[in-house]
Amino acid sequence: MDHLVIGPGGVVLVDSKRWHRNSSIRGHGGRLWIGRRPADSLVQATVFEAARVGEVLRAAGWKVPVMPVVAVHGAKLPRWGALTVSGVTMLRADRLCGWIRRHPPQLSSEQVASISTAAERVFPPYSAVE
């Protein structure tokens, strides 16, 4: 998990990935493809991470869905700029904020603050060891 975004639209787990700008990302046959290679492990790992975040937040008293997203840097996505495979949305990183803002409000500002506090306890920010 690279980022956990908690706002009025819900909880979003963001995994950032960078591929070469000549790589193409597409969904076909219920699978994610990066170039000519299937990327099932990326989808499975992102689904697993989102489920795990949901379980941990549930244990902290918050039963909220966690939306898994991969923010794509570099690679080409379909013309419309996003695709969803097995519940994981793949979109260009520069479209992530707009995508999050377009979700209708589900949480009050008090709920956002409480969930954020709980998340900070169980998912402390990463800090590099020097």
TrEMBL record:
Residues 2-72 form the NERD domain. InterPro entries: NERD. This is NERD domain-containing protein. It comes from Nonomuraea thailandensis.
